[in-house]
Design goal:
heterodimer, A: mainly alpha, 84% helix, B: alpha/beta, Rossmann fold, four-stranded antiparallel β-sheet
């Protein structure tokens, strides 16, 4: 455990001093502030901020984690040639990359909202949004590290990680829409809930939307979603789903780390 | 002591190491030579367990190299390496000390390699040669019985190269086992007790450098190696 902590601290300091992490934090903060300032309403700005956060946080986490892994192979060799377990090296590296990214997303939102504090109407939606940004960063960092580790070279690794982001952020919704159009005559609300649980980006989007007034616009589906995600079982299932989304790629990282040739 | 028993490594269809039996006794300095792509780096990575052999076994001081604890006995200096750009050399030494659970005092090595003024600069701001000196400090910082050096003098200025070789000879006098790769034959002649020559994934020669010169009847090691590779290729064509 000590070795995980040592590597985590080291990678964390490296990332906290990185130009890109600071730029990312400032971008989120400025976008949040500007959107709240120009819309003049905190709750109206939330939808736009949500769209930025749930697309940008996974994308930035995917890119930064993948690039960190491929640009630091020498460092990785040095770590793996020390008397420590391979899994410890990778856990330390994952935490060192994922935590500053999730901190940048979370702190960026907090900073942007704090600057326009006078206009904050309720704390519930911002909290859900911040939590979504943090969790999505952790999930996509783990996914990206797993894909990079399983790939033979940088081009394939970064390319496939980006494809997964594109699939979950855009293509998945398109497929979902097609499914709803084709089977629109049938009662598929339960399916919609299950399919939402299978995509962390959609799950975060639904969570934030249900906290906003605009959820009324979702009609009958919105009511079904509200019923499921609004009760204790729904929340537990959703949190479990997000935890599985983090734990599954992390297990993949630990499994692959043991077997890979470097 | 490092011992390889019938080690083979295959990447897909390509067999990079073929049935290698290789022994590095305690207190010897052995240079691993061979043309590019002959399998030197893979062999070193196998010893460090960065690459898992397809077959065969590797022992470090009698224990299987697959167990991470065996690397307590081994220090490794990679080729000119880019570690973390925003971290200082001082922080890097501290990290490796923590991972080895050892309190290290790099002061002597830092002054030996004239690194004092670079100690608190981010590694990304250091030149290739200075980074290599940081690497060298890492390799000699811990009192490990085995030291593995991958192209250690590449990128070093002449003064640092001389200093580095003196350090290797000092560690050799202290009974350390040293395995290193190099393309600079004068370095090999100066410090190596033996050379292991790797060609197409096989150890085709392992003996004193002088024996290779005698065998090929060449005046120096560089020419001896060129002649050896040529005659080996001719032999393969005829067979």
């Amino acid at each position: 455990m000590r070795s995980i902590l040592s590597i985590f601290k080291f990678v964390l300091i490296d990332n906290l001093r990185s130009f890109w992490v600071i730029t990312y934090l400032l971008f989120i903060a400025i976008s949040t502030y500007v959107l709240i300032y120009f819309t003049g309403s905190f709750s109206r700005a939330m939808v736009s901020i949500m769209n930025i956060v749930i697309l940008l946080a996974p994308l930035v986490s995917t890119m930064m984690t993948s690039m960190y892994y491929f640009n630091k192979t020498d460092f990785l060799y040095l770590l793996l040639s020390q008397p420590i377990k391979r899994t410890h090296a990778f856990l330390g590296m994952y935490l060192g990359v994922a935590i500053p990214l999730s901190m940048a997303a979370g702190l960026g939102l907090i900073l942007g909202m704090a600057l326009s504090m006078k206009q904050v109407e309720s704390l519930e939606t911002p909290m859900v949004l911040i939590l979504s940004g943090v969790l999505l960063s952790l999930i996509f960092s783990a996914l990206s590290l797993f894909i990079s580790l399983a790939s033979r070279d940088k081009l394939r690794g970064v390319g496939f990680a980006l494809f997964i982001w594109l699939f979950l952020a855009v293509i998945y919704d398109g497929l979902l829409l097609m499914y709803f159009i084709v089977f629109g005559e049938y009662p598929i609300e339960q399916h919609a809930i299950i399919l939402t649980l299978l995509n962390p980006i959609d799950l975060s989007r639904v969570f934030v939307m249900l906290n906003l007034d605009v959820s009324a616009l979702l009609g009958y589906s919105g009511a079904v979603f509200q019923k499921f995600f609004g009760n204790a079982t729904g929340i537990v299932v959703s949190v479990l789903s997000l935890l599985i989304w983090t734990a599954a790629p992390l297990s993949g990282i630990l499994f692959k780390a043991q077997r890979k040739d470097y | 002591m490092i011992e390889l028993k019938k080690v083979s490594k295959r990447f897909g269809r390509v067999e990079v190491l073929r049935n290698i039996d290789f022994y590095v006794p305690q207190g010897r300095v052995i240079s691993l030579l061979g043309p590019n792509g002959s399998g030197k780096s893979t062999l070193i990575k196998c010893i460090l367990n960065l690459v898992r052999p397809s077959s065969g076994e590797i022992f470090i001081n009698g224990a299987s190299s697959t167990h991470f604890a065996t690397r307590r006995d081994v220090s490794y200096m990679p080729q000119i390496a880019r570690f973390a750009e925003n971290i200082t050399a001082r922080q890097l030494f501290k990290l490796i000390g923590e991972l080895r659970s050892l309190n290290c005092d790099p002061a002597e090595l830092i002054s030996y390699f004239d690194l004092l003024s670079h100690l608190d600069k981010p590694l990304g701001e250091l030149s290739g040669g200075t980074r290599q000196k940081v690497n060298a400090v890492l390799a000699f910082l811990f009192d490990t019985p085995i030291i593995i050096l991958d192209e250690p003098t590449a990128g070093l200025d002449p003064v640092s190269r001389v200093n580095f070789k003196q350090l290797v000879l000092r560690e050799k006098a202290n009974g350390k086992t040293i395995l290193f790769t190099s393309h600079i034959m004068s370095d090999v002649e100066e410090v190596a007790d033996e050379v292991g020559f790797l060609l197409d994934g096989k150890i085709v020669f392992k003996d004193e450098p002088r024996k290779l010169q005698d065998m090929t009847q060449q005046p120096n090691l560089e020419k001896a190696i060129a002649s050896f590779i040529q005659s080996h290729k001719l032999h393969e064509i005829h067979s």
